[in-house]
Write a structure and sequence with these properties.
globular, alpha/beta, binds guanosine-5'-triphosphate
Length: 205
């Protein structure tokens, strides 16, 4: 989180990470529709040489204020994981939370695990790794095997959330879990409050 005295806002960053084609952009587009219903929010696409970064900037009315300041949430993602190491390192620098979106396809276990390792490697170079929420985009294939889940999660102890990035089930719950991490760092009880309020948002239609 960073303080901006000029505009009396606090800014927090959540990074959406995952193997290629796991539905990161799809997830973010759904979330944009959700956050539109909760206040000012804007989707921006940034093109650099050959990377594509998508960012969603939101100032949700429902987010608890911290010390009288509103919290601006920036959610961002880039494409794939292999060719874009520099981009990912920059995105992950200063991230308050990460959403790891695994590909739900049955044959994607190897790519999911490689991406988990990439995430840890990238995050390790920028200090303490950000708290991470794990989600599986189950609409992209058969549910992943229990073993694969465990391999990805064994040092977090966290459950993975099943999502359908296109249709929405699980997206708000995953977002709420990430928001909880962000606000927990700001004060006792704030995480639960933020998760409850923001996790209840639904797209306006
Ligand atoms: N039916 C369905 N299709 C999906 C879902 N999520 C993603 N897709 C499709 O899968 C493909 C990849 O989705 P993206 O959202 O572009 O994935 P990405 O993770 O941003 O991909 P990269 O940027 O290449 O890493 C697209 O054709 C999407 O339309 C989903 O939940 N359901
Ligand atoms: Mg993408």
């Amino acid at each position: 989180m960073s303080f901006h005295s000029a505009d009396h806002e606090i800014r927090a960053k959540v990074v959406l990470f995952g193997p290629p084609r796991s539905g990161k952009a799809t997830f973010l587009r759904y979330l944009a529709r959700v956050l539109e219903s909760g206040g000012e929010s804007q989707m921006t696409t940034l093109r650099t040489d050959d990377d594509r970064i998508i960012a969603l900037d939101a100032l949700p009315r429902e987010a608890p204020v911290i010390g009288g300041r509103r919290v601006r949430l920036r959610l961002c993602t880039a494409t794939g994981t292999v060719r874009y190491e520099t981009t990912w390192r920059q995105l992950l620098d200063g991230a308050d939370a990460v959403i790891f979106l695994a590909h739900g396809g049955e044959d994607r276990g190897g790519e999911n695990l490689a991406a988990v390792r990439d995430l840890r490697r990238f995050a390790a170079s920028t200090g303490a790794p950000p708290p991470t929420v794990f989600a599986f985009n189950r609409s992209l294939g058969a549910p992943p095997r229990a073993l694969e889940r465990e391999a990805a999660l064994n040092d977090t102890g966290m459950p993975a959330i099943d999502v359908d990035a296109a249709e929405g089930p699980g997206v708000a719950a995953t977002f709420a879990a990430a928001v909880r991490f962000v606000f927990d760092a700001a004060g006792p009880g704030l995480g639960a409050e933020a998760a409850k309020r923001l996790g209840a948002l639904r797209p306006a239609n």
